[in-house]
């Protein structure tokens, strides 16, 4: 089988981002399939592609995967207008490969939503070619709920693009139960939708005991609650600084809140922490996955933080959650939904009201004073990771689904 795989943000384990497309593609190649990835440039990773053309793209092999990288760069620090222009340019410039490359199936994975445009155009001219659309976030529901996009014309156009993409695809993959429900609402038959969430890389992330001093500002007396990922509007990380303020008031001096990542809100967050004297917050730059695995072994709790938006309760499948449980960490979320339900039913963490950061701070204090409870919760996290979210198992399920298509 030959697969043309569109993922604008394709990254490997040498980067700080999600590696779902890389892991799935590598497995396909290992069992004899051919994969061509169409992606854009990334500010967090150099793929070291050896062939540069005069047409604005590079090409080369990455672990047996043929990668075509279009010379377009989108940063999560850019404003909405600039990013939208880059998304559209990528969608239309990359469409040419749907007609130049030899393949059996075109697979596009969001975000952004515009990644489905090559598949839509392909089905207009080559309806017998198969197209699978993988949905990582519900757009435009999430940006609309956050107030990021308010223009009714833009929202209408995005909604039309969403519906057309779902209807053009021969099948869809949703990364959370709520995403599957969101796809089905537009009339896509359930037997054409697969639920395949993000996964745990059990070979990379594992429980362990790292010296806590590998994290700046921490030592063996520190109780470390860690957040890894984007520092954008959707993440609502002012909540963490509110937690830090309450911890200071509680004289919980041993608890250190560590935030690893980058994004449009990071400078603002750092400034607020400095101005408020929140020296119990440490901000670190993004690190590659293999380094992050070691850092998580020095942590005590994984923090899942999102802006207080109801749509997040069902419309996301956050990579960080799966890294936390694979590392055997208790997890604390500040929202409700399917992830919070998993924590409760598997006794591996806590869901705290998003409007009450003081309760989040209090629970951190309780955990810092109860290492036995932390150990039990962490053991349960790893058991959940191994039982339900093994990368090998979910990759096999993903491959079987697209082969059936």
Give a verbal description of the structure.
This protein is α/β, with parallel strands linked by helices. It has two domains: 213 residues, 3-Layer(aba) Sandwich (Rossmann fold), CATH 3.40.50; 177 residues, Glycogen Phosphorylase B (Rossmann fold, 3-Layer(aba) Sandwich). The chain is 40% helix and 18% strand. The chain has 15 helices and 15 strands. The strands form two sheets. Strands 3-4-5-2-1-6-7-8-9 form a nine-stranded mixed β-sheet, with helices on both faces. Strands 12-11-10-13-14-15 form a six-stranded parallel β-sheet, sandwiched between helices. Helix 2 runs parallel beside helix 4, helix 4 packs across helix 6 and helix 8 crosses helix 13. The longest helix has 18 residues. The radius of gyration is 21 Å and the shape is globular. 49% of the residues are buried. The mean pLDDT is 91.
Summarize the topology.
Elements: E1 2-6, H1 20-30, E2 34-41, E3 51-52, E4 57-62, E5 65-73, H2 80-95, H3 97-100, E6 105-109, H4 117-125, E7 130-135, H5 141-146, H6 152-168, E8 171-174, H7 177-184, E9 193-195, E10 223-228, H8 238-249, E11 255-260, H9 266-275, E12 281-284, H10 289-296, E13 301-304, H11 319-326, E14 331-333, H12 338-345, E15 349-351, H13 357-368, H14 371-388, H15 391-404
Parallel strand pairs: 1-2, 1-6, 2-5, 6-7, 7-8, 8-9, 10-11, 10-13, 11-12, 13-14, 14-15
Antiparallel strand pairs: 3-4, 4-5
């Amino acid at each position: 089988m030959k697969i043309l795989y569109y993922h604008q943000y394709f990254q490997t384990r040498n980067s700080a981002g999600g590696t779902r497309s890389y892991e799935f593609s590598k497995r396909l190649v290992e069992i004899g399939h051919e994969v061509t990835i169409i992606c854009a440039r990334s500010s967090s990773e150099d793929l070291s592609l050896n062939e540069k053309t005069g047409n604005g793209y590079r090409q080369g092999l990455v672990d047996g995967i043929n990668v075509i990288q279009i010379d377009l760069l989108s940063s999560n620090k850019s404003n909405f207008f600039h990013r939208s222009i880059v998304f559209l340019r990528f969608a239309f410039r990359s469409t040419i490969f749907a007609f130049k490359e030899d393949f059996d199936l075109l697979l596009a994975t969001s975000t952004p939503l515009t990644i489905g445009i090559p598949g839509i155009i392909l089905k207009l001219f080559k309806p017998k070619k198969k197209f699978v659309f993988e949905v990582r976030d519900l757009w435009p529901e999430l940006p609309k709920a956050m107030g990021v996009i308010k223009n009714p014309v833009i929202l209408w156009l995005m909604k039309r693009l969403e519906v057309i993409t779902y209807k053009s695809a021969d099948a869809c993959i949703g990364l959370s139960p709520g995403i599957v429900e969101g796809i089905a609402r537009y009339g896509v038959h359930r037997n054409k939708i697969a639920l395949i969430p993000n996964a745990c890389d059990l070979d990379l992330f594992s429980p362990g005991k790292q010296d806590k001093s590998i994290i700046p500002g921490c030592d063996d007396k520190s109780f470390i609650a860690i957040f890894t990922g984007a520092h954008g509007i959707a993440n609502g990380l002012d909540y963490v600084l509110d937690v830090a303020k309450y911890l200071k008031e509680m004289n919980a001096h041993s608890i250190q809140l560590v935030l690893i990542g980058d994004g449009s809100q990071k400078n603002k967050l750092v400034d607020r922490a400095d101005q408020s004297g929140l020296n119990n917050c440490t901000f670190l730059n993004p690190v590659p996955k293999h380094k992050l695995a070691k850092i998580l072994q020095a942590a005590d709790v994984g923090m899942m933080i999102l802006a207080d938006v109801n749509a997040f309760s069902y419309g996301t499948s956050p990579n960080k959650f799966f890294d936390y449980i694979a590392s055997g960490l208790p997890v604390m979320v500040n929202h409700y939904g399917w992830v919070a339900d998993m924590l409760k039913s598997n006794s591996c963490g806590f869901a705290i009201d998003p409007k009450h950061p003081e309760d989040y701070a209090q629970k951190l204090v309780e955990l810092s004073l109860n290492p036995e409870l932390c150990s039990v919760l962490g053991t349960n996290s790893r058991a959940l990771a191994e039982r339900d979210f093994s990368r090998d198992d979910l990759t096999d399920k993903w491959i079987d689904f697209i082969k059936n298509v």
